[in-house]
Structure formats: structure tokens, C-alpha cells
Amino acid sequence: MRLYSLSVLYKGDPKVHLLKAAYDVSTFNFFQRSSVQEFMTFTSQLIAERSPLGSRASVKEQEYLCHVYVRNDGLAGVVIADNEYPQRVCFSLLDKVLDEFSRQVSKMDWLSGSPATISYSALDGYLSKYQVQTPR
């Protein structure tokens, strides 16, 4: 069971833009990592764009399950995990991250922010904390 990506996006007019993201691509071949990360960024934006405000959904994309939560205020979160990762845990993680993000980052920054300009550093910590360690 593995989490690969955790993203916070803003669903504004006319399109969705990425505010902050964390990735764990360490299980992929070194030469595949950047293209896998690009795929995850693109997929997160696409799923958030196609999901209505106030909705939660899980979408299968290749061998991944993408869990999206779009709040009524337009703030959205996407977790990309493997098929075995519990859906309930993904949605509770998204709830926690979006609540914390909305308290720490001004709504004004959602409209024009980008991963380089938004100062919210908790995503990497959440991504590693929620990894399920399998015994070897």
C-alpha cells in the first residue's frame, strides 16, 4: 500500500491550477521519475477540473486510484495511491490537509498562487506520515 502524490489545487475560472504538491516517486526507476511526476500533476489537475464543487470521488487511472475532494469554496485536494490503499484514509487525509491549508494560506493567494509562491510545507510530512510501512 503506497501513496504517490498529494496535491492542493484551486478550481477557479476558467481552469484549475496547482497550489502545492508533494510526490513520492522513490519506487520508480530513476529515469522514469520525472515523467511519472508530470503524469501525476496532469492527472490531479484533470480530475479536479472535471469534479463539481462539493464532491468527492475516486477514479481509477492505469494502476493508480486517484481520490479527489473539491470543496464548495473551490479548494481541491487529490491523493494518488495504489489500488490497495484504503479509500477512507485518503479522504480523511484530504479533509485534514484542506482544512489546515485554508487556515494557513490566505484565500487571496489561492487565485494567483503557484507551488513556488505558496508557503505551506506540511505536504511532504503528511505524505511520509501516511505511507503504510509493509514488513520486509
Description:
The structure is a single chain. The chain is an alpha+beta fold and 136 residues long. It has a single domain (3-122), classed as 2-Layer Sandwich (Beta-Lactamase). It has helices spanning 33-50, 87-104, 107-112, 122-129; strands at residues 3-11, 16-23, 55-61, 64-70, 75-82. A five-stranded antiparallel beta sheet has the order 2-1-5-4-3, sandwiched between helices. The longest helix is centred in the first third of the chain and has 18 residues, at 33-50.
Name of the CATH first level? Alpha Beta
Mean pLDDT level: 93
Note poorly predicted spans. none
Give the total of domains.
1
- Please give the alpha-carbon distance between the first and last residues: 13 Å
Order of helices and strands: EEHEEEHHH
Give me the count of strands: 5
Could you describe the largest sheet, including whether it forms a barrel?
5 strands, antiparallel
Strand content: 25-35%
The level of helicity is 25-40%
- CATH homology-level superfamily: Longin domain
Strand order of the largest sheet: 2-1-5-4-3
Task: Please report the number of helical segments.
Answer: 4
Q: If you compute it from the alpha carbons, what radius of gyration comes out, rounded to the nearest whole angstrom?
A: 14 Å
Which CATH architecture would you pick?
2-Layer Sandwich
